[in-house]
């Protein structure tokens, strides 16, 4: 496919010029904003990158990669309406309008922390697409779609994959999505094989490893009598089916051949779309990742994990995005859930409030703490189930790591008898998340915005799946149960 080139300014630091945002971008006073208008180039490998899902998060990370000099293209899907009064069902019109706005006005990323970026209209015309079959094949594919779009992902990304299986995919998505994403990729590959398109394929192999490890599923789950009153105890007729699911999730791995590696990504960022072509970055930006699956066989897995971690970090070399790597992806997902369940959950359950309202109200603040406690209990129970208990002293060392590193990136050097590095979530993790909540101010989570605009919400993987896992593990989570019940009631009422 055609590669779209653009001019770059060779520099070891940010090359910027002064641009004035137009009235449509909330800068009616005509204030000058220092803005990067040309990519920065350094002595590094230039990758072809596809961002599938150019919402606030995808546009932000994609623009940062473009700024650093990479060859980036964006797939636009269903952008946010300009106002709550727009018809939320007129998706085709929204897509067309967003495409026209970006190609006419360019893309602005506003960030007091990392600096502003402006991708000019003449470049946006060759960078933004509404059909991935028209895009170039990519070395890296960043999937930044909402989790309810998971069934659509294979059809969107397969046209972007190198046919020799060397592409890498980073699924920057909310919720506990990784095993289902792996399954839909596997299903897509089977369909391709049936159609005679066998340039690459996925194979099921019980001896392969991925980020969840390979513990046996033959473990009894704890059930507590008091869970009956909370609706948490698993009915007897469901136990056999759920036990089989538990065995299949981490035990029946899928080795990849359609791509080099599938990563799970967690974006610790507060970013929103102020208009269709204006992204406002408010806080944070760290991107954490872990491995879902690779092409590598079990015998070479340790070396491959180091190689794939290095590849991920190298991608963001000279990019204004802090990154971290989770040797245990399940642990990484639960760390993100420590924010998603209280922030996203309570804000929607309360009818669409900002995060600051949660932490400024005494009762809601206590509710958020209770939800975090239940999240920690469920996370540690699941990690123990799959990997065995953490190394002795891991919890105490985790608290110490938090104190020494201000909660930004903890050391992950503890291993258990299965050589799977993990350390339990602790009180330090909870209070670090509270500190973030106190800083978010009027920020509204993506789930809150979806609810207010009456768009589909990420209920299954963000709320229902954590509750189901707590239920299977016998962990009482009454506060999470109530929040999920309220959110699902909204979902039914408004057909979301």
List key phrases describing it.
496 residues; alpha/beta; 12-stranded mixed beta sheet; 16 strands
Beta-strand residue percentage = 15-25%
Average of the residue pLDDT scores: 77
Number of helices: 15
Report the biggest beta sheet as strand number plus sense, adding barrel if it closes.
Answer: 12 strands, mixed
Shape: globular
What is the C-alpha radius of gyration, as a whole number of Å? 22 Å
Please report the distance between the alpha carbons of the first and last residues: 38 Å
Taking pLDDT < 50 over at least 5 consecutive residues as the criterion, the unreliable ranges are 1-34, 78-96, 201-236, 242-252, 400-418
What share of residues is helical? Answer: 40-55%
Number of strands: 16
Structural class: alpha/beta
How would you portray this structure in words?
The two termini are 38 Å apart. The strands form 3 sheets. Strands 2, 3, 5, 6, 7, 8, 9, 10, 11, 14, 15 and 16 form a 12-stranded mixed β-sheet that branches. The chain has a two-stranded parallel ribbon with strand order 1-4. The longest helix has 26 residues, at 362-387. The model is unreliable at 1-34, 78-96, 201-236, 242-252 and 400-418 (pLDDT under 50). The chain is built from 15 helices and 16 strands. Helix 2 (91-105) crosses helix 3, helix 8 (329-349) runs antiparallel to helix 10 and helix 10 (362-387) crosses helix 14. The protein is α/β, with parallel strands linked by helices and 496 residues long. Helix 1 links the parallel strand 5 and strand 6. It has helices at 56-67, 91-105, 121-127, 153-157, 178-194, 236-251, 301-315, 329-349, 355-360, 362-387, 394-405, 427-439, 446-452, 460-473, 478-493, and strands spanning 9-10, 17-20, 32-36, 40-41, 48-52, 71-75, 107-111, 116-119, 128-129, 140-143, 168-172, 203-205, 253-255, 261-275, 278-294, 323-325. The protein is globular and about 50 Å long.
């Amino acid at each position: 496919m055609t590669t779209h080139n653009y001019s770059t300014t060779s520099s070891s630091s940010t090359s910027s010029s002064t641009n004035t945002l137009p009235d449509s971008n909330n800068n009616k006073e005509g204030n000058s904003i220092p803005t990067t208008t040309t990519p920065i180039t350094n002595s590094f490998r230039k990758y072809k990158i596809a961002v599938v899902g150019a919402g606030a998060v995808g546009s932000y990370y994609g623009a940062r990669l473009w700024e650093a000099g990479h060859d980036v293209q964006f797939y636009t899907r269903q952008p946010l309406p300009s106002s709550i009064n727009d018809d939320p069902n007129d998706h085709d019109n929204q897509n067309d309008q967003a495409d026209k706005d970006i190609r006419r006005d360019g893309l602005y990323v506003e960030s007091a922390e990392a600096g502003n970026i402006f991708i000019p209209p003449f470049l946006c015309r060759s960078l933004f697409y509404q059909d991935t079959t028209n895009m170039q094949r990519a070395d890296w594919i960043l999937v930044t779609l909402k989790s309810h779009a998971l069934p659509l992902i294979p059809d969107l990304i397969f046209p972007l994959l190198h046919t020799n299986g060397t592409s890498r995919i980073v699924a920057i998505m909310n919720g506990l999505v990784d095993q289902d994403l792996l399954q839909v990729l596997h299903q897509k590959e089977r369909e391709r094989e049936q159609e005679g398109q066998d340039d690459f394929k996925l194979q099921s192999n019980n001896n392969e490893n991925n980020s969840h490890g390979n513990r046996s599923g033959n473990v009894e789950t704890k059930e507590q009598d008091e869970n009956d009153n909370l609706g948490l105890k698993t009915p007897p007729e469901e136990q056999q089916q759920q036990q089989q699911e538990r065995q299949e999730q981490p035990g029946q791995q899928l080795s990849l051949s359609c791509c080099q590696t599938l990563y799970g990504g967690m974006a610790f960022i507060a970013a929103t779309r102020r208009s269709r072509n204006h992204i406002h970055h408010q806080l944070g930006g760290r991107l954490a990742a872990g491995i879902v699956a690779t092409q590598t066989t079990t015998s070479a897995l340790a070396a491959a994990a180091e190689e794939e971690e290095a590849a991920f970090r190298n991608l963001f070399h000279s990019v204004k995005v802090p990154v971290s790597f989770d040797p245990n992806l399940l642990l990484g997902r639960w760390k993100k859930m420590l924010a998603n369940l209280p922030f996203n959950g309570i804000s929607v359950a309360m009818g669409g409030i900002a995060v600051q309202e949660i932490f400024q109200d005494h009762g809601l603040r206590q509710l958020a703490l209770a939800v975090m406690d239940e999240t920690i209990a469920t996370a540690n129970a699941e990690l123990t189930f799959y990997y065995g208990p953490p190394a002795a002293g891991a919890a105490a060392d985790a608290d110490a790591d938090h104190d020494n590193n201000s909660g930004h990136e903890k050391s992950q050097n503890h291993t258990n008898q299965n050589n799977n590095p993990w350390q339990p979530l602790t009180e330090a993790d909870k209070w670090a998340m509270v500190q973030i909540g106190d800083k978010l101010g009027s920020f509204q989570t993506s789930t809150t915005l979806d609810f207010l605009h009456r768009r589909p919400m990420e209920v299954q993987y963000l709320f229902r799946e954590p509750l189901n896992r707590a239920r299977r593990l016998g962990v009482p989570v009454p506060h999470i149960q109530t929040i999920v019940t309220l959110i699902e009631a909204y979902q039914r009422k408004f057909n979301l």
